[in-house]
Design brief:
The protein is α+β, with helices and mostly antiparallel strands. Helix content is 53%, strand content 13%. It folds into two domains: 6-81, Arc Repressor Mutant, subunit A; 92-156, Arc Repressor Mutant, subunit A (Orthogonal Bundle), CATH 1.10.10.10. It has helices spanning 6-20, 26-33, 38-55, 78-81, 92-104, 109-116, 120-129, 148-154, 159-169; strands at 59-63, 69-73, 107-108, 133-138, 141-146. Helix 1 (6-20) packs across helix 2 and helix 5 (92-104) packs across helix 7. The mean pLDDT is 85.
Length: 179
């Protein structure tokens, strides 16, 4: 492989992170860079992370817990710019299915069909393609759980705490059924 100028290598890493719209592995970034050294790519990534901290206020390059890297909007700015996003990556109906999986996991396909109807099968296919959920077969039924990629994407550190906070946020019903 021909030696590329450092500026070109950095530009290729930046371009890959920007265009991907998802976290990229070190191997993917190494391939995109045009060089064979994972160590050089790690060094470039660390420099880019530090540079974005100084230059940008609302966007960042972040190293996620699973070792992948992502170019993203800082989480605290998402609510502010949500109305400017042209198309959500996940439709509301698919997001609702994902929320049921998150809350009830591990959850069977049968239970999801009971809750969401037969359209859930297309939701499950989309969520598996996004790698937000995984399934295990239990006979003819599949059992679904969320993935580490899901947690990283949505900034969830602890599923138990999330579930507890959702439980405590629900309105309390009085014995006669009124709120």
């Amino acid at each position: 492989m021909a030696k590329l100028p450092l500026d070109e290598t950095i530009a290729r890493v930046e371009a890959a992170l920007y265009a991907a719209g998802r976290p990229l592995t070190l191997d993917e970034l190494t391939k995109a860079s045009g060089i064979d050294s994972r160590e050089k790519i790690k060094k470039i990534l660390n420099e880019l992370i530090n540079k974005t901290k100084v230059i940008f206020k609302a966007i960042e390059i972040a190293k996620l817990d699973d070792g992948t890297y992502v170019f993203q909007l800082k989480p605290n700015y998402s609510p502010i710019v949500k109305k400017f996003a042209s198309k959500p990556q996940i439709s509301n109906s698919v997001l609702k299915t994902l929320s049921y999986i998150t809350y009830e996991q591990p959850v069977t396909s049968k239970r999801l069909v009971e809750i969401r109807g037969s359209k859930v099968y297309s939701h499950l296919k989309e969520l598996e393609q996004l790698e937000f959920i995984i399934s295990k077969s239990a006979g003819r039924i599949k059992i679904y759980t969320t993935t580490k990629k899901f947690q990283n994407y949505f900034g969830i550190n602890d599923l138990k705490s999330l579930k507890n906070s959702l439980l405590s946020a629900q309105p309390r019903r009085l014995p006669d059924g009124k709120m």
